[in-house]
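Hey,
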Amino acid sequence: MAIALKNGSSGDDVKRLQAQLNSILKLNPPLNTDGKFGLKTERAVQAFQAQFNLGIDGIAGKKTLSALNAKLGGSPIQPPPPVPVLTAGNTQAPPWYLVADDERQHGVAETPGAQATPRILEYFQTTTYNTQSDETPWCSAFVNWALRQAGVQGTLSAAAASWIYWGVGTAPRTGAITVIRNASAANSSLSSSGNHVGFLVSDTPTSFILLGGNQNNRVKISHYPKSSWQLRACRWPTNA
């Protein structure tokens, strides 16, 4: 396999990479194993790197390729069948949602000024991002923390986009880990990338209603209008 595969690469090495990512990440829908390294393949590489703490650059270099082969034991890979999308039949809130809502009820919020709220710094401890500030966007850290309290392993990443390929796809339902994006929100106090992640409360015809961290600088339930926010992923823990 080539030394490094990145956006713009093509060929059989990319086909193998796409099949490996499909197998490990259980992507739904799976990547097309067409040998063309585009944006979807780059995002899948980033999701793998986030999940296995490899440093997120979207480039399948020696370290990432070695991790892929080690995870798969070096065996030949065939593209897996699509992961079934879960249905929205059960509306009972899952345990991680109850953990998150308890934080909301306790009023966890940023501390104005130079000081940081210790609880928010605790959220960051479930990620690989080292910070002593609660001014850093912390929505993904909060999701990682709430899942860990419920015994579920998250992405270990402070990046909201790291959740796009995590777990398995699900129809919108209470507690689903939901990634939305608004390009105009990039480089704001909410998000550095325009992506935001939280736990779905409800999916209405006009809004995504999320329970999450770093929403108006606190843990709260917020409405995100569909006129400006795009749904990027609705995910559920693989074994839950």
